[in-house]
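Side project, low priority. Logging it here so it doesn't get lost.
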Amino acid sequence: MSTAGSDIGGFDWAGGTNGQTKVNPLASIAPSDIVSIDVLKDASACAIYGAAGANGVVIVTTRRGEAGHTNVTYDGYVAWQTVAKKIDMMDLSEYAEYQNQLYAEGIITEKQLDKAFLDPSLLGKGTDWQDEIFRTAFMTSHQVGVSGGSEKLTYAMSGGWMKQDGIIIGSDFNRFNSRFNLDSQFTPWLKLGGSLAYTRTNEKITLNDGSDGVIMQAMTMQPHVPVRDFDGNWAGPTTVDGSSTWNPVALALQKNNRLLRQRVMGNFYVNADFLKYFTFRAEYGFDASQNQNKSYIPRYQFGLVSNDINQMMHREDHSFFWVQKDYVTYHQRFAEKHDLTVMAGFEASKSTWNNTTLIKKNFSSDQIFVMTNDGEFVSNNGYDDSATTASIFARANYSFDNRYLITATIRRDGSSKFGPNNKWGTFPSVALAWRVTQEKFMEGTTSWLDNLKLRLGYGKVGNSNIDTYRYAAAMTAIQTPFGTAYYPANLSNPDLKWEASEQFNAGLDFAVFNNRLEFTFDIYKKQTDGLLLEVFTPGYLSASNGYTIRPPYANVGKTQNTGIDFALNARPIVTNDFSWRMNLTLSHNKNKVVSLNENSQAMRGKIDWYSEFQSATLITVGKPMGVFYGYVTDGLFQNADEIRNHATQTGGSVPYANRVDRTSGAWVGDIKFKDLNDDGVINEDDQTIIGDPNPDLTFGFTTAFTYKDFELSIGFNGAIGGDILNWARYKTEGLSSIWDNQTSDVLGRAQSAMIDPSKGFDPDNVYLASNGNGLPRFSNLDGNSNCRMSDRWIEDGTYLRIQNIALSYNLPRKWGSKVGLSSAKIYFNVQNVHTFTKYSGYDPEIGAFNQSALLQNIDRGRYPTPRTYTLGLNLSF
């Protein structure tokens, strides 16, 4: 199964700053079909999977049939979702007070001040735009399964339907899924079987994760603007001078971005025993998908904002992946103490994918979302590509007296993504284990010690996760007055080769008191060499007209991860009627960049097109991945002399030459930035690492209590450390827009006063009357660049979340048997119960934007995790 995030379409101009363009591929699998999910991080365990295991392996096991009577199951639930937290934005009376403050400070004129704002005490709350876009959303799921069989034939089949409304109006998700698994012991020596699954999902995706997204527009839209005007039309702002322009309710309901996905997955096998100790197994799997994405922007009128050109994009994506594995296994026990298993095989796979994208405009109707002859053609695009792999592999497992265990693996992988010079890579692994409890000198501990096992491992795996044909120079077509022409799209590198990750790990497994207390401890070091990255190229390879030759891909760097994983399982109380169990996991990982192609080189991550955030993150040698990079703040300017004597930070190049000016320079109440290199000028040389998005520790804890037929479980998860760039505050506390709504904290910003009111705004007549809550003064032209990328926007992402509280009741068998039930359970749970955190945004658990290591923990108004109340029923007949 392909597990890379699937792209969604939409337009580059769908909202200006765009948003997430990846959707979760696991959304196509029904949770009730899953028996277990196992995560493999051990070097040796991952090595057998080759390039697919370069970043770890997640094994999803689905339900299969068992011999015996036919079993019919029903899993269903209804749920309600709500937003767990709202941001404290100004209501109408507070916004009016804010406008009066700006008038008193001389920021806006008497003509610009709305007369309705003169007495804020007469005003109500106005429009709460967060209340308007968020809703209590309904969700329901129904899943039916049938399984059973005989000793020679077992089967399991299931089908289900799920409907989920999003907590933001205009967003929804629907899924139909079906699965059929079959296993047949055809003869005593021949077994065959397989599985086939079909899934269809249909979802409407709202624009988010950007300044033009629904959430950001809801936070910044003025509270005196209604959702609709008196005529029932969409309302909008009364000015567009630097204000929010989109009616967020209309944005959510009218911008139509739908994604329809259909997916068929299959896996089939033949297992044959021969020559007593040998088994041959052949496996074939495939994953076929078809995605249809339609995005539509209608004509609209929001107050003074209007759009007279409607546009639609229609995008079709098709992909097909197949994999063939054939391997022979030899297994034999010798002299009762020796156990040997040897396996060797061959694997081949191929992925193909293609896309067609059409864009048209000026349709005669905004009600029909079909790419017909109507409208004017804008553009079309498409691609067709494929990639293949081939591998040979072998593995040997040896155990002596169930005490000493060794596993050795070797793979040789080839990929079409690399040129003929380095198409193949060799990747070995070895693991050792010692069951200490099996030793004679441990016989005295058998009454209390159940398991003591020591483990060591080493593994090397390859990674080929780049686009195709990067080892060679491709050509790009352009239109010229003389017809179609071509220019090189990129520079070639025929020596491009596999990225390789080496991992060493040591572990301990320990269990006592009849396995009532178990824990595992692992320590690891993983080093990835030959990173597949674009190298730095000189500027003369680019052109001012945008026709840029891309640099070549090369193996140009090295990263290192070291960490510790700890897991504890305990059953402190076990009686006939009552039991208590708990589980604790802790994980610490520290990563750093060891080298790049030039150790002075830095890879920078930018946020949209905003000039102040063009180097918001950094990947550089000696530092963790994706650290935040910017200026360091040093309080607020108290008076004009302090501005004059501070390093130049208003654009001047001469030390101590700050321009003291309310609009075009620095002013009392502006932010001071530190001159880190003491050269008297605040410029890009004073930028430094101001935060690390990587947490110091992640953890999870679950405890469960069972009393007779009742069970109560409570789950926690959290992280310590891990900074967040709260870019949303750039819009809601930036203090540079006269009209945008801001958070309530803005009312407590820095305030200046005059020594002698008769002398007006003479710089030496102004002083900082109050630092307030640390926020700077209002500055609509931001001549001091108060809103530049700095530690002003960095927040601690530490949190503890009550992730789940679940209460269930199992109907006694004697009651259920009267109506043919073998088991019945009713349950109620609450997810995302409460989060303890100092983070001011919706949710501190953010992740990487579009799976980019350069854009981790950046909050641009992301879709918040809902709080979900679920009532469910599980029946088995």
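Brief comment: The first helix runs from residue 43 to 47.
Revisit when time allows.
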